[in-house]
Amino acid sequence: MAVFAIPNPKKTLNVDIALDRVKESVKNITLLSPKYKFHSSNEIFNQYTYESYEFLSLGVYIDINLNSISENKTEITVEIRRKVGTFNESHEVTHANQHIVNIVNSIAQLTAMSTDEIIKLKSRQSQNVPALIKSRKEKNMAAILSLFLGGLGIHRFYLGQTLMGVFYLIFCWTLVPAFIAFIDFFAFIFMSQNKFDLKYNV
Predict the structure, then answer these.
(1) Can you tell me the distance from the alpha carbon of 202 to that of 183, in angstroms, rounded to the nearest whole number?
(2) H-run or E-run covering 179
(3) Which pLDDT tens digit goes with each residue over 38-48?
(4) Which of 11, 51, 77, 113 could form a disulfide with 117 if both were Cys (CB 3.0 to 4.6 A apart)?
């Protein structure tokens, strides 16, 4: 453990809901929060792990442990740990705490849903999978193109913004488009998937 390491952010709460219901909600977190990908589980000990990738790091693991206190009461423990190393900056802990809030909110929303609503959510997600994969690739590709060929406006042509791409190309000798493209790169990286899809009609 590093000398200045900060303990993994963790939150434990008790809910007046049966274990099986909470467990079902935990298994479906990706339905509401696609940024969290299922990683592994231990059904015997009611332990579930999700992962989330982050900019400029390998991301984090989200460990969720469930414990039945009584027939209608469950203890939920959510712990965030880095994939590599430990937390050693306060802003990292703040970001990790936001993961905890997101996970707890997702579990709460899913628990409040009926079985039919969850089935509809799964059905809608399965229908949108090809589109989601396609748009995610386009977002990443736009970021890469803006970083390496942005000075020529290639990322704008790629996104179907031909007129803007032509302007980038015409003024590429001034290096101003290259500077703007560098800003575009970070805009794409930090932009949410939904916002990207809406803005560029992907």
Answers:
(1) 21
(2) helix 176-190
(3) 999 999 999 99
(4) 113
